[in-house]
Amino acid sequence: MPMRARDPEESHRVSTPLELLFDLTFVVGVSAVVAELAHAIAAGHPIEGLIGYFAVFFGIWWAWMNFTWFASAFDCDDALYRVLTMVQMAGVLVLAAGVQPAFELADFRLAVAGYVIMRIALVAQWLRVAGSVPAYRDTALRFAIPIAGLQLLWVARLALPDPWALPAFVFFGVLELLVPVYAERRNMTPWHPHHIAERYGLFTIIVLGESVLAATTAILAARSIDGLSIDLVVVAIAGLVVLFACWWLYFLEPDAPRLAANRDLGFSWGYGHFGVFASLAAVGAGIEVTVEAVSGHVAASPLLVAYSVAVPLAAFLAIRYALYVRIGGERPIRPWLFGVEIAVMLLIPLASAWLSPAWVLASVAAGAAGLVVLKTQLRTRQPRVQPSISPG
Question: What is the SS3 assignment for 255?
């Protein structure tokens, strides 16, 4: 069956069962990288942990994002399409298996192998488009050829000495980011705004799952300790409040109508979500660190434990707000007032000199809940103006 281009204005376009299964494999990868970040912070090595975290999370996010936008524009759901998608899923699992060696030994061989498997399978999909959809042949080749070439560079990077490894990673990462910009500048693929917004929302829920896991860990730890651990119960409740606040604030305003109104904003919106996803997953890591700090000894200082939640939470709120405003959304809260809320959230961890990690987390959760209440109230008072939908 030949590959076909989807209608970007197709009604009732939703995620397919195959896309949902594809997302499921990324749960493993995200969980692995978040766990390693939590261990690094708890051990008192936040900088090293963050470098490894962003490097591996970039590979996970970028592979997910490329397939997501491809599947939004092209899909035939035949046997070959499904098999190539399965190969990409296998690559995710290989990458996840390589997370621990990458963090602990700076050995990226397995992680790179998983990434290359995912990307080569996507190259095969683009070549199918080139052979089946004449209107997008040039665009497909402008994707396939650079992506294939970059995989050779990623493999070659493994042989570089340590001083060159990180600069090479940054350089190759930038080249990866430029491929879609280069490929689509003449003929944009027919991605579906509502489908893309739904897919991003689903991945948001996946990374929020790390906070669910951390809160569950706190409950289990509280049960395993002789007598009731009030602090761990507080951590579990506060973690759940943070999780719910992040979910509420992300889905408070719809993005799809504005993406449909101005498809040119797709790049900045789509790329900017790296910060949204990475910060939300890191919130889960911070809650895990707090659980460890309450239930046992950690090398990290109380201030570092407190900021391990507050910093990524503040980053998520700021990036999400900026992206929504960027695509033409109304400002449901004045920028200066929003800035005050973020500043307060970043000042709360200073109370770690007097409060236990559990109660600092509870204070951060209260701040996030307060922002939910404020933005929801202001939104209900603000007249809703629907964006005018213009072609492409």
Answer: coil
